Amino acid sequence: MQNFTSGKEEKLDLAEYGFDEGLRGVHTSRTMMLSELEAVMGSIDLVVSPTDVRHAILEDNVLGKATRSGRKNSATKLIILYSFNPKQQLFYAFELLWRNTTTSRPVLAILLALSRDTVLRASVDTVTDTPIGSTLTKEQLYKSLLSGFASKYAETTLQSTSQNIASTWRQSGHIKGEKPIVRAKAPADFHILAFALLIGYLRGLRGQNLLSSDWVRLLDFDAAELEAVTPIAYESFLF
After folding, report:
1. Is the entire prediction scored with pTM above 0.85?
2. pLDDT tens digits, the chain, 239 residues: what are they?
3. In this structure, are residues 140 and 68 in contact, taking their beta carbons and an 8 Å threshold?
């Protein structure tokens, strides 16, 4: 996936928007945790800060974890992956759209996760370059990590990370099955396109480049579908 940053000033701006460009990733130990995200978002009427999320998980135990250490770990990973900071444009838009859609929430979640997890982002081209209905192997997902992370993580970590990444793409609806893994069409709508366009805009894209970005490719719209939902998506956010 393309990285539209070149200098310290631009990277700082991205962080202020809610992006995380650090060479780390929750996926070395967890997946996108969609069910946990749904539980947290369902338990809070409006997120004011990450403290709300930590309290819901630690004190209210909305995730139903048996131990406090398990709750702490889940809270930490979720906050790293999704930020839950409405002062940042990414999460502010994410929450607004999350409250207004249901079926396409998995794709909304993975777009935010990809904005904050560079390890997960390494697998994007492998998934989007696989035609819908074609098979995708675990070895392909594993190889997608090698160029950027082979020198940073042990072989065992890379293998387990590729399994977590496969689980995440399964949760988002981009793949299905285990043996074989089959590329599926993601459940996207105009809400998700609006979020993808916002991500591209914040990363410096303008004009037609917004609609041809990797972020939009992830939505699996064909040409006719994209043409139909684009005007509605543009109306959802004023850039």
Report:
1. yes
2. 654 444 444 666 899 999 998 877 899 999 999 999 999 999 999 999 999 999 999 999 999 999 999 999 999 999 999 999 999 999 999 999 999 999 899 999 999 999 999 999 999 999 999 999 999 999 999 999 998 898 888 999 999 999 999 999 999 999 999 889 999 999 999 999 999 999 999 999 998 999 999 999 999 999 999 999 999 998 876 54
3. no
